[in-house]
Amino acid sequence: MIIVDFEKKHIDEARAVALSNYNEERRLVKELPEINDLPDMTMFAENGLGVAAFENGKMTGFLCCFSPWDNAFGTAARGTFSPLHAHGAAAENRVRVYRSMYKAAAEKWVKAHITYHAVSLYAHDEKALQAFFLYGFGVRCSDAIRHTEGVACGAPDNISFRRISAGEAPSVREMRRMLSEHLGDSPCFMYSDESEFRSWLENAEKRGSVIYTAQAVATGSSPVAFIEVTDSGENFVTDTACMKNICGAFCLPEYRGTGVFVALLGFVLNSLRNEGAELLGVDYESFNPNALGAWEKYFTPYTRSVVRRIDEGVLRKYPL
User: Fold this and answer.
1) pLDDT greater than 80 at residue 197
2) Average pLDDT estimate for 233-244
3) Phi and psi at residue 229, in whole multiples of 5°?
4) Sheet containing 79-82: which strands, arranged edge to edge?
5) What pLDDT digit, counting tens, does each position of 63-91 carry?
6) Cα gap 41→187, rounded to integer Å
7) Domains, the chain, ranges and CATH?
8) Is there a contact between 138 and 307 (Cβ–Cβ < 8 Å)?
9) Distance (Å) of CA 22 to CA 125, 157, 204, 288, 303
């Protein structure tokens, strides 16, 4: 096996490898839609951070990433991310291929002072997951998918559901704040201070998403749970025309376990199906126990994004 720099001339072969990997996952996750093309890979050839593996003149894999950015995932580190379409490996010797490619790519990344490495892998690709786990990666987040057939759950008598207007988005601000506080606690530790939360909230209320709420009749119009939906999500699968994606959700603690949230999810699914959507996706942090338990009960995971933080002391070896 030889490892070379990823170049534009490799894109067609890389696209075929990536689509083959996607179809492997699709055979195991029946909800995944048929996809015959991938996002443009030119940027991965131009930033000089990618590699490709060849044996006997045939590509056996490639591993690329986005150009780096500072303060990755809220840390002080410079980071990069390899999305689903930026890597792939042949089934044969996949663990060895991925480990060899990461060894070569990671050297490039660290020389560029990139110490936070993130890679999105298919949830059922045990060989790829093993390769990265052996190099010190751990799972951070996941994507999951389901058809828009409704969830079997009777709605509580004292609860009503509706899609709220854009001007009513402030009605879920308090729940968004509670969600932010929850994510800042153990074991998530995704902390946002007041300034960061307000900045995020301002953008969230302008992004054109659709919000569905559950209201308790006894409290008038005050929502007790919400689910927020957008047209696209975190990877190329979510851009499928027939798919919508959950980008936020919360239920007040006193209404958990009452069937309110599941009934709201059923309302969302029915509404989306009536509007022509066939699929619904969701992304969530795997270290958020509430999200993990709720989403994986009703959705099928198809990605696991893994991360590794390199000890910044090594940067003394590679002065810029």
Assistant:
1) yes
2) 94
3) -130, 140
4) 79-82, 116-122, 300-309, 138-147, 279-285, 243-251, 223-230, 210-216, 159-164
5) 999 999 999 988 999 999 999 999 999 99
6) 35
7) 2-144+305-317 (3.40.630.30), 149-277 (3.40.630.30)
8) yes
9) 10, 43, 31, 26, 10
